[in-house]
Design goal:
The protein is mostly helical. The chain has a domain of 89 residues: Arc Repressor Mutant, subunit A (Orthogonal Bundle). Helix content is 51%, strand content 6%. It has a two-stranded antiparallel ribbon with strand order 1-2. Helix 1 crosses helix 4 and helix 1 packs across helix 6. The radius of gyration is 17 Å and the shape is elongated. The two termini are 31 Å apart.
């Protein structure tokens, strides 16, 4: 599993939005410039964040992008799932995967522990906390 550049961009977009007063529209151009995100990647990523219900966007004069909920209500794990989909560090840990050695596989158990530790770290950090770390 590798966290993609698009997920990195999504976190940066949400951080930029969370650094403004809640509910304020922020222009795409401003986000792209402040976070050094290419415009075409920005638009694709915003579409995924809209689909995930994390942001809303509005076109035209006075438009832009804004958070649907405050930044302290989104964890980094939430962002990963919104962009990457359901996560598993190995195929044997994917939901609905039927492993023939499920009860006795030591490797699966180890990978499961590692995955849980990763998810705990990602669930333990909100967008707002990342923004505040930069101050």
């Amino acid at each position: 599993m590798q966290i993609t550049r698009q997920t990195e961009y999504a976190v940066k977009i949400l951080m930029e939005l969370a650094s403004h007063p809640f509910g304020q529209m922020v222009s795409s151009r401003s986000i792209a410039e402040n976070k050094q995100i290419p415009e075409h990647f920005l638009q694709k990523t915003i579409q995924l964040l809209v689909k995930a219900g994390m942001v809303t966007s509005q076109k035209g004069r006075g438009g832009g992008v804004r958070l649907v909920r405050p930044g302290d209500e989104f964890t980094i794990y939430d962002v990963l799932v919104a962009i990457e989909g359901p996560l598993a560090i190995n195929v044997c840990l994917k939901q609905f995967y039927e492993c023939p050695n499920l009860k006795t596989c030591r490797v699966r158990k180890l990978f499961g522990e590692a995955q849980n530790a990763l998810f705990d770290v990602l669930n333990g950090k909100t967008i707002a906390e990342l923004v505040n770390e930069n101050e």
